[in-house]
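Allow me, if you will, to draw on your knowledge of protein folds for a short while. I have a record of one protein: its chain in single-letter code and its fold written as discrete structure tokens. Kindly check, if you would, that the fold set down in the tokens agrees with what the sequence suggests. Thank you for your consideration; the sequence and its tokens are set out here:
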Amino acid sequence: MIKPIILAKGNFQPKDLITTVSESNRRIDPTRENQLDALWIEKERNAKEKGKLIYNGLSYRLNSLKIENNKLILDFGIFDFKTRECLPETQNYYETTEEFWRKGCHTLATVKTSDGKYLMVELSGKSMNKNPTDFLGGIMETEPAIKSGNDIFNSLYKELEEEAFIFETDIAGSVLKMVYINGNTNVGFYFEVLLKITSDQIQKTFDDQTKEIDIKSLKVMSRSEYINVLENHNPNKQFLAKQIEI
């Protein structure tokens, strides 16, 4: 792993984000690239044996980020999940320089309810996510396409709805607080979200719905419990525990 790198920090709204999509500018090492197929075949075999979900879809990576006139200028590339998932397992990957890193993009959020509770999800273990509990959020896939700052926010809202049945109409306010490269060389778009509804309302809606196969339950915590979970989790979450402002 690497030490997380903050690329931008602030209180960004959709209007503050300017997005483009280009060819991926990830530098290719042919020797490393030739390892990917064998690593992916092994992952598929292990997933099948353990009854886990795995698929080779398309998602965004961060080609570049610039800050001009308080705007984030973001250029995305596209690559497949096989590359995203397997690159770190190639030989001496974490000894390479940034131009070789995967930089796969994902959203994640601190979500606070109207009664001051904090939400995470408990995972079923049936997906490739190795965390027992995690933030609400997910991989920034190419469907729906990201064409504007609104689409980056919508990528998060889609995950809130799919994972916890939190709808955009339930949101009192949201802000993109930070873009950073995490310890695994992926790029996190970290949001803070305030809701109009209480934790009891969210829990009731969640309990009444059919869950995604990889979501086991909704975790509702006080702020101190939430911070404690993050501080005792993996290094990426320990890093984020120090960033939370709401």
Summary: The two ends are 28 Å apart (CA to CA).
